Amino acid sequence: MDKRQLCALFRDRLAQLLAAETKGVAGFLRDTGMDRSALSQFLDPSIDRLPRAETLRRIGEARGVSVDWLLGLENAPEGRQQVAPSFQIEQADDPRRSPLHAWHREAEGQKLRYVPSTLPDTLQLSDTPEADAPTPRQPREENVLDGVIRNDLDIEIAMPVQTLQDLATQSGLWRGACPAECARQLEHMAETCDARFPALRLHLYDGQANYSSPFTVFGRQRVALYIGEAYLVLTGREQIAAFTARFDALVRAALVSPDRTGALLRRLADTGEWAG
Question: What is the pLDDT of residue 134?
Answer without folding.
Answer: 58
